[in-house]
Amino acid sequence: CGRGPGGCRGGRTDMALRRAASLAAGRQPRGPRREGTVRWSSAAKASAVKINEKASREKILTLESMNPQVKAVEYAVRGPIVLKAGEIEKELRKGIKKPFTEVIKANIGDAHAMGQRPITFLRQVVALCTYPNLLDSPSFPEDAKKRARRILQGCGGNSLGSYTASQGINCIREDVASYIERRDGGVPADPDNIYLTTGASDGISAILKILISGGGKSRTGVMIPIPQYPLYSAAISELGAIQVNYYLDEENCWALNVNELRRALNEAKAYCNPKVLCIINPGNPTGQVQNRKCIEDVIHFAWEEKLFLLADEVYQDNVYSEGCQFHSFKKILYEMGPEYYNNVELASFHSTSKGYMGECGYRGGYMEVINLHPEIKGQLVKLLSVRLCPPVSGQAAMDIVVNPPVPGEESYAQFIKEKESVLNNLAKKAKLTEDMFNKIPGVHCNPLQGAMYAFPRIFIPSKAIEEAKAHKMAPDMFYCMKLLEETGICVVPGSGFGQREGTYHFRMTILPPVEKLKILLEKVKDFHIKFLEKYA
């Protein structure tokens, strides 16, 4: 230290203050000093605490300074009710007594977490790709090895651990295109229009990013169904776009009505520029399957109003009701003739997470985008390249969804048996859930035509609504929280998906095993009757 008139006193003072700070934090002096034992006054301690407070500067990132668009994001499927369920699980593990022994998480469509067994062939191929030494094992069938070798040949260094092209492995995109052609009865599909994605969610978010622009009244409006899957409202909030709600018709099995689309569009034109129309078919959370006429009407509406169509078709394998059939928007668009097929811009999405596969954790998916402007195609690839590439194991899993065993191959019999078992079981559970809900007083459930959820309407007495307001909760959140606390059943309130004013719902997956689902539904029935009695 520099020796001026005061010598090293400044340094000694700093040392003393540091010593004071240690004492203020409850630490004892480390022994005698040459100057003798120092006795600290309360004033010195207070001074040291103040210095510590000054040293801890304000955080740069706070709720006030963070991105307000991220702050506005809500995702009900993993919202407050799920956090509460996690707290209850911890309490149960500690031995805290509850009126139940386990939390049943019926809030999300996570098939394997609910006990569904993986499809053997899919896991065999991914295992072979992950550890190619297994290609020499006699334990794996030749048709699985053939697919694994083809996928690995498309990977750098023949390894699943290498980056791929941003658009995905070329041979898998070729398989996706072939799958779409088979599904749609020969309608052509170009691998160059296929983009492999990190689940369908990644593709939906990417397309929305590239679509949203403008400010004020020219800001992009995105039309979404109500009820909707909360990914859409979350992405719209994050991107600062304008959410334009159109309501599905609950009295008519959640049908989509073009007159309602027109109402929503015309009203939105007063405050934004609506240019995107999102469709979920089969519906989530509502389970409706759109008929051909409805899809034709929607396509004509999009063509007429110059709207970019997003078709979320991840539940295309999940159709249960007699008389219902999945029709892809791409197929119907093609069959409506060249005036539509060559002009309507359409992005459609699929995933490994749903269907009969239930492989949520692999995060595999694809989107097909048609009639995209050539220059925008380059911009989309650029945007996707920022995240380098989708998970390569997920790409491999997606390949098996679109390129499964065929008749004559070694694994076909087992594959088709497992696939049909899953889908038949889901159909049985869809009917069971609908029937049991409709036997409960004050509950009404539309037919579960497809997907993997029930979205029953529940009657909530005015007394319960008042109590919910006192707790600063939406009435259906209050109901679902009580259901969780009293039965251990975790479902998602309808307010997280959107619903008409004055109506209340919750979404519940039908994925639990049949016997557990029956117990769950009986518990909901008993709870609801007691709830009505308490708040009548």
TrEMBL record:
What is this enzyme's class at the first EC digit? Answer: transferase
Its EC number(s): 2.6.1.2
In the record, what terms sit under GO molecular function? Answer: L-alanine:2-oxoglutarate aminotransferase activity; pyridoxal phosphate binding
Is the keyword Transport in the record?
A: no
Aminotransferase class I/classII large domain location is 124-523
Keywords, in A-Z order? Aminotransferase, Pyridoxal phosphate, Transferase
What are the names of the required cofactors? Answer: pyridoxal 5'-phosphate
Write out the similarity annotation.
Belongs to the class-I pyridoxal-phosphate-dependent aminotransferase family. Alanine aminotransferase subfamily.
Name assigned to this protein: alanine transaminase
Per the record, the gene is: Gpt2
